[in-house]
Amino acid sequence: MGRRSNKERVPEFFTAEVERLDQEGRGIAHLDGKVVFIQGALPGELVRYERIRSKSSYDIGRVAQVLRESPYRTKPKCPNFGIGPGSCGGCAMQHLEPAAQVAFKEKVLLDTLWHIGKVKPESVLVPIFGPTWHYRHRARLTVRDVPKKGGVLVGFHEKASSYVADMKHCKILTKNVDEMLVPMRELVSKLSIRQRMPQIEVAVGGDGRTALVFRTLEAPSEADMALLLEFGRVHNADIWLQPKGPESAHAVLPENENALGLSLSEFGVRISFKPTDFTQVNHALNETMVSRAVRLLDVQPEHKVADFFCGLGNFTMPLATRSARVIGIEGSEGLVARARQGAAENGVAEKTEFVARNLFTWCEDDWQKLWKRMGGIDRVLIDPPREGALALSRVLAETDLRPARVVYVSCNPATLARDCAILHHEGGWHIRAAGIMNMFPHTGHVESMAVLEPGPKPEKKDEAAEAIEAKIAQGDAEVMGA
């Protein structure tokens, strides 16, 4: 007898009590000695679920019926949210009340710090949160011409799929972009190159100015260009084209090249950016985050500050308004050049310096040269990508040239835990405080901030430090944040 095909698979249903959530917002349960990750389930719920995947050590399922409901369950606001086939993958937790999402993320942070790094902060910072809906000022929308689904689709991918969700609205994108989704579909459907346009990148400035970057694998025709420019005029959006990599992106109308910007009003700073640059997606929360970081650093007018992974100067320029001197260090030559220009535009060029350096190979010699160049360093701000700041953490753990305080801004609890473990167990640094920032409501992303101060170095590595080093040497997926 032949093997039954996937289409003929008989659904299997089970009942389980949900214990907690994982970092993707799935409920975690145990059944017959096996871990089960259940999409759409919340802690404390009794659910009937369908098993959709089975592995030797775990199963994955999705809720079929909630038999006992959590008091924190709420009705999703977005029509695209769900757990079944075709549902949008942009959000994971719209069924959980926003306040409970914040509590969940705080627990993820503290559990990860202890589980991976064997460190506990001396105090927990009050969570930072901002708008729950229409907060997302940046997005990369996939474009597909799918005749079987009625034509062109523009939106996020479906959950765990390369297909594009059939989205007509999105409650996390800014209101003007939300209202543009259907018109964008209609626009692309009229273009001769609709099958050669895989994505549209959206960027909205602090003042609402909007840029749409159309990725084009083939040059638009004159008729296409007329349609694009008319769309921009009607919907008040700057039209950009990107024929190759991000560096090839350019505004169709040259006067729009430097139109986007975000403001940090407390510091009197405006940062200009291109629509393909990295900027925080949640502008309201970004302002609060920068203010908290500067305050926690306790920067004084005489201080000299180093800002690692500085990007366009999101922290560097505000720090320059409070200190004697700031140096921003970043891996991209292009971003460094743009940060210098931004410092001049904001009147802080004399107090800032920007240099390009690969921070993933940072070493003690680099640190000593920087210390000498600055005439000492009083404060350090670290804001790395998901990979964390392993090399820099090792240097700060080993060096005798220590700043009095470090603030570490993280977008990955696993690498934050790893780096804090190295600083604490090997360098004697104290984790004075840590807390979360709900930069991405309704998703599993956990953004956080930690405050560290130097203490006496341990005479020898303790067991926790040796365990962390062993995991790093083995390329442990959890520690590396994969």
UniProtKB/TrEMBL annotation:
GO MF, any single term: methyltransferase activity
Enzyme class of the recorded protein, top EC level: transferase
Annotated residues for binding of S-adenosyl-L-methionine: Q280, F309, N314, E330, N358, D383
InterPro entries: 23S_rRNA_MeTrfase_RlmD, MeTrfase_TrmA_AS, MeTrfase_TrmA_CS, NA-bd_OB-fold, SAM-dependent_MTases_sf, TRAM_dom, U5_MeTrfase_fam
Entry annotation: catalytic residues: C411, C411 (nucleophile)
Keywords, sorted A to Z: 4Fe-4S, Iron, Iron-sulfur, Metal-binding, Methyltransferase, rRNA processing, S-adenosyl-L-methionine, Transferase
EC assignment: 2.1.1.190
Positions of the TRAM domain: 7-65
Keyword Iron-sulfur on entry: yes
Catalytic activity as recorded in UniProt: uridine(1939) in 23S rRNA + S-adenosyl-L-methionine = 5-methyluridine(1939) in 23S rRNA + S-adenosyl-L-homocysteine + H(+)
Signal peptide start-end: none
CDD domains, A to Z: AdoMet_MTases (cd02440)
UniProt-annotated binding residues for [4Fe-4S] cluster: C78, C88, C91, C170
Biological process annotations from GO: methylation
Function, as annotated: Catalyzes the formation of 5-methyl-uridine at position 1939 (m5U1939) in 23S rRNA.
Family: Belongs to the class I-like SAM-binding methyltransferase superfamily. RNA M5U methyltransferase family. RlmD subfamily.
HAMAP family assigned: 23SrRNA_methyltr_RlmD
NCBIfam families: PRK13168.1, rumA
Protein name: 23S rRNA (uracil(1939)-C(5))-methyltransferase RlmD
Species: Sutterella massiliensis
Upper lineage: Bacteria, Pseudomonadati, Pseudomonadota, Betaproteobacteria, Burkholderiales
